[in-house]
Design goal:
There is one protein chain. Helix content is 34%, strand content 24%. By secondary structure, it is of the alpha/beta class. The strands form 2 sheets. The protein has a 6-stranded parallel sheet with strand order 3-2-1-4-5-6, sandwiched between helices. Strands 7-8 form a two-stranded parallel ribbon. The longest helix is centred in the first third of the chain and has 13 residues, at 17-29.
């Protein structure tokens, strides 16, 4: 949906499965700098494996200021992958002139995003997307080929495997925020 250009700078807010996929997509698209932002250190480590060139732990710094400092003014593209008002607003605030913020997180219904009108005068844009505007018949074969080449790092997203009878523990793990993607093994327990 964002059409990231080779050589551009990208920031991704949130390093869950969706954010990590956006990081990998930006790397595959040829972004020169991909900045991963999260509050969980283990997720930032995985972000580097997925193609992030820089990481920011937002639990102890202002993410917007850190991005502007790393890039000399802001990024060309940002992706909000958490689904929160604050991070949606930050995704717009960290853009350079002419930049594009894409909201891919599930922001709760009724939540209003507040942006300063004057910031639009610098040709910055914000958009939302569902599944990146995927065209399944065209994109799926291409994505499978990227995975076969080792460029699309889907296997890195798997943080663990659980048996079906461990489903309650799996939900407890999800609440901790630590796992990326757990696979359920439906084999005999």
């Amino acid at each position: 949906a964002a059409k990231v250009e080779a050589g551009s700078t990208v920031a991704v807010l949130g390093c869950g499965g969706i954010g990590l996929s956006a990081i990998n997509g930006a790397a595959v698209a040829g972004a020169s700098r991909v900045i991963a932002i999260d509050t969980v250190s283990s997720k930032l480590d995985i972000a580097r494996e997925m193609g992030a060139t820089d990481t920011i732990n937002a639990s102890n710094v202002d993410a917007v200021e850190a991005v502007k400092e790393l890039t000399g003014g802001g990024v060309h593209y940002s992706f909000e992958a958490i689904g929160a008002k604050k991070t949606a607003e930050q995704s717009f605030q960290m853009l350079r002139a002419g930049g594009l913020a894409t909201i891919i997180g599930m922001i709760p219904f009724g939540t209003k995003i507040e942006l300063h009108g004057a910031d639009f005068l610098r040709d910055r844009k914000i958009q939302g997307t569902s599944m990146g505007g995927n065209r399944f018949r065209v994109d799926m074969p291409r994505l499978l080929e990227l995975w076969r080449q080792g460029r699309l790092k889907l296997d890195t997203l798997i943080s663990g495997r659980i048996k079906l009878n461990e489903i309650n523990e799996g939900f407890d793990n999800l609440k901790s925020g630590a796992p990326v993607r757990q696979l359920i093994d439906f084999g005999v327990s």
